[in-house]
Hints:
Blueprint: H1 5-21, H2 23-30, H3 40-64, H4 68-94
Amino acid sequence: MALADHEKRELAEIEQRLSVEDPKLAAKLARPSALTFLSSRTLRVLGVFATYVCGLLAMIGGVTWSSVPLIGLGAALCVGVFGHLVFQAWRAHRG
């Protein structure tokens, strides 16, 4: 949804006032984030991968410390990631 012309002018005025009132903040906001160049799909894939790795690390830690709840948590994370991937593939295939 595109902005109306008066909304664009208002935003430009706000931006100008911000740069006059607080130039450090304006410069910080003008810089792109480190993750800006990544697509939302890439960020989702990285998040799923990080969750899976955390599950594996929890299982390894649970085995190391003989902690059944930690092993269960790690297994639940790993199975949950697999279930999420299967569900997403099924949903994409279905429609």
